[in-house]
Specification:
380 residues; mainly beta; Alpha-Beta Plaits; 3 domains; eleven-stranded mixed beta sheet; six-stranded mixed beta sheet; 13% helix; 35% strand; globular; Methanogenesis marker 16 metalloprotein; 4 iron, 4 sulfur cluster binding; metal-binding; Methan_mark_16
Length: 380
């Protein structure tokens, strides 16, 4: 008879460590770890049908976002293979939600259109070329000049910092990897869909690894992915969960936030100016904003709503609310009347004013992976 695996989530395991109950780790077979954050190296590979026949497409669009026509000619078939990347966060979320999007192809000077949902696309695969970074940096600005950057929703000012990374919950912080072969072919969850790890991602190394993985977008849960507006443009966030075998990675699993370095870099040149740790930015903070509706002045221009990077703040009937699209970034602290308050922490004494990773989503997916393993839906 096959042994029943004992599976716990990464936050449950870290509680063992904090409570000096390390001996309990020996009773565990699998730990489900997870991370969520902006992952720029994300692309979608689609096969898009049209209702008319045309020669090979020269241009392709989904909801006016331009893609790259794929190498397969599909000549005179009225179908297009295409790759989409860049500012696709909100587009991909809409597709996974099942919303209708407009497909547009240009061939020989004529434009062809079709309204499609993800179910109309025979192929809709996501590939993350650079996801789940083990080593992140916090970013600050040492100059007097504000700068638009992918690292902040607002122009980054002197004396502010932003950061990414789920610290002690991040899968790669809890694994011992000596070679790319240690990860190739292993299974994971990417935005709720079963994924295959293809190997190391771009710019990966043994000291600073990240992963490349792929999954079917039709199996994804829209809660786990989406767009995140920065002052430099739109980025995409993803959520990844990976099962870890305790007997292979026991020592790495013992690390806490205080044991994981978080370098602080200057936005200009990215030189490291100091080194803190993830306890500074994740301990005693709020994962979601507290809201004080009685303080709301019902402004004609609500700054929190306007600058929310995920469009999670809504005004309806004169009342303000936060939807499940909230990422916990803390940008809504911009409200001058204190309607929203998010405690964000600091790094090396510099206050965090934008957080680009979301532990709430990460831990939710870790729990989901645990359930899938226990039910036999996800097999190790």
């Amino acid at each position: 008879m096959e042994k029943e695996l004992k599976v716990i989530t990464i936050d449950e395991l870290k509680k063992y460590i904090r409570n000096n109950e390390e001996d309990k780790i020996d009773e565990v077979d699998i730990v489900t770890s997870a991370t969520c954050g902006i992952m720029s190296g994300t692309a979608g590979i689609f096969h898009i049908p049209f209702n008319e026949i045309f020669k090979k497409a020269e241009e392709i669009y989904l909801d006016d976002i331009k893609g790259v026509v794929g190498v397969c000619p599909n000549e005179y078939l009225g179908k297009v293979d295409a790759i989409f990347y860049g500012e696709v966060g909100f587009l991909f979320k809409d597709l996974v939600k099942g919303k209708i999007v407009e497909a547009k192809a240009v061939s020989e000077g004529k434009t062809y259109r079709n309204e499609v949902t993800i179910e109309d696309l025979p192929t809709a695969k996501m590939i993350g070329t650079r996801v789940a970074f083990k080593n992140y940096s916090a970013i600050t600005n040492l100059s007097d000049k504000e700068v638009n950057t992918i690292f902040h929703r607002l122009p980054l000012k002197k004396g502010e910092a932003s950061f990414s990374g789920c610290g002690m919950y991040n899968p790669l912080e809890n694994m011992i990897i000596n070679d790319e072969k240690d990860v190739v072919g292993k299974k994971a969850l990417l935005n709720g869909a079963e994924a295959i790890i293809l190997g190391f991602g771009t710019r990966s190394s043994i000291k600073k690894p990240n992963l490349m993985m792929s999954a079917d977008m039709k199996d994804m849960d829209a809660y786990y992915l989406g767009g995140f507006i920065t002052s430099h443009g739109i980025e995409i966030y993803n959520t990844i969960a990976i099962p870890i075998k305790v007997d292979e990675h026991k020592e790495a699993l013992k690390k806490l936030d205080k044991d994981i370095a978080l370098p602080l870099a200057n936005i200009f040149g990215r030189e490291i100016i100091d080194v803190g740790n993830y306890a500074e930015v994740w301990e005693n903070v709020d994962l979601r904003p507290k809201i004080y509706p009685d303080k709301c002045k019902n402004c004609d221009r609500c700054l929190a709503e306007e600058y929310c990077p995920t469009f999670a703040i809504k005004k309806e009937g004169g009342k303000i609310k936060i939807t499940e699209d909230c990422f916990g970034c803390g940008v809504c602290n911009i409200c001058p009347y204190g309607v929203f308050k998010t405690k964000l922490g600091s790094i090396c004494g510099i206050p965090i004013t934008c957080r680009q990773s979301d532990r709430k989503r990460a831990l939710k997916l870790a729990k989901e992976l645990k359930k899938k393993i226990e039910s036999g839906e996800f097999r190790i």
